[in-house]
């Protein structure tokens, strides 16, 4: 088996490496077929271990796997203990792999122009609203003008319907966020996670934003989607410095 990857198309410096996994190239069976990297979704532990081993052959070290809780904590992957509760990680240490797992939530990868620091954030709507991107950028400790972001596979607006409380959480923070929502029947709203992430990044001076052209729910061949399938696997977004 050989994992299938998406390589981010962004102007990162040559010493910054990043990989986005898809659902293909692993050993898990349905409904986790086949490259499920999540060890908390009900898949056979041996299958997850083998999938992570297959991924590991393409990395400089074992990723720092987080216990994601839809929060805002960003930890230093160079000193973190695997399984710590956090939804983002950064590092300045070469060879340390930051990673987040998703299956509809938005993965955000970040680096600076000089390639001195990299980060990965798990940004579902709760984390976005609470400020996970802001805490991640703060941990990188550089001006936004020196940073760039890649937005990986997430659920697209055409497939992401939410209640009014989700819209209110964003619009209360920034009235301009209303542009990321479109009214649907019965008080529901279509929600554009990519647009919401752009608002947050641009507010911090980060204007170089790429990716954002996926829909996990609409592409069953390539991506896991919790909204589409319920019981499903998880993909990984990974970044490190050489």
Provide the CATH superfamily: CNF1/YfiH-like putative cysteine hydrolases
Name of the level-1 CATH class: Alpha Beta
Our count of domains comes out at 1
Uncertain ranges: none
Estimate the strand proportion.
15-25%
Helix content: 10-25%
CA-based shape: globular
Task: Report on the biggest sheet.
Answer: 6 strands, mixed
Task: Please report the total strand number as a whole number.
Answer: 13
Question: Which CATH architecture is right?
Answer: 4-Layer Sandwich
Please give a handful of descriptors for the protein shown.
4-stranded antiparallel beta sheet, CNF1/YfiH-like putative cysteine hydrolases, 6-stranded mixed beta sheet, 242 residues, single chain, 13 strands, alpha+beta
Question: What does this 3D model show about the protein?
Answer:
The strands form 3 sheets. The chain has a 6-stranded mixed β-sheet. Strands 1-2-13-5 form a 4-stranded antiparallel β-sheet, with no helix packed on it. The protein contains 6 helices and 13 strands. The protein has one domain (about 5-155, about 210-240): CNF1/YfiH-like putative cysteine hydrolases, CATH 3.60.140. The chain is of the alpha+beta class and about 240 residues long. The model has no long low-confidence stretch (mean pLDDT about 95). Helices cover about 20% and strands about 25% of the residues.
């Amino acid at each position: 088996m050989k994992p299938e990857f998406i390589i981010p198309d962004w102007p990162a410096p040559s010493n910054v490496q990043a990989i986005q996994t898809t659902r293909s190239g692993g050993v898990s069976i349905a409904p986790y077929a086949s490259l499920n990297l999540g060890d908390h979704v009900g898949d056979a532990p041996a299958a997850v271990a083998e999938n992570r081993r297959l991924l590991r052959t393409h990395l400089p070290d074992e990723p720092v796997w987080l216990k994601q809780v839809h929060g805002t904590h960003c930890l230093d992957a160079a000193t973190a203990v695997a399984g710590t509760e956090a939804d983002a990680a950064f590092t300045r240490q070469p060879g340390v792999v930051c990673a987040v797992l998703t299956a509809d939530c938005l993965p955000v990868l970040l680096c600076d122009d000089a390639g001195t620091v990299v980060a990965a954030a798990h940004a579902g709507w709760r984390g976005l609203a609470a400020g996970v991107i802001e805490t991640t950028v703060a941990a990188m400790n550089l001006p936004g003008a020196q940073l760039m972001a890649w937005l990986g596979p997430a659920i697209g607006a055409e497939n992401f319907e939410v209640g009014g409380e989700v819209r209110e959480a964003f619009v209360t923070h920034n009235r301009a966020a209303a542009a990321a929502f479109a009214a649907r029947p019965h008080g529901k709203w279509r929600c554009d996670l990519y647009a919401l992430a752009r608002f947050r990044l641009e507010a911090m001076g980060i204007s170089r934003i790429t990716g954002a052209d996926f829909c996990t729910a609409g592409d069953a061949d390539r991506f896991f989607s919790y909204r589409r399938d319920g019981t499903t696997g998880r993909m990984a977004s990974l970044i490190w410095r050489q």
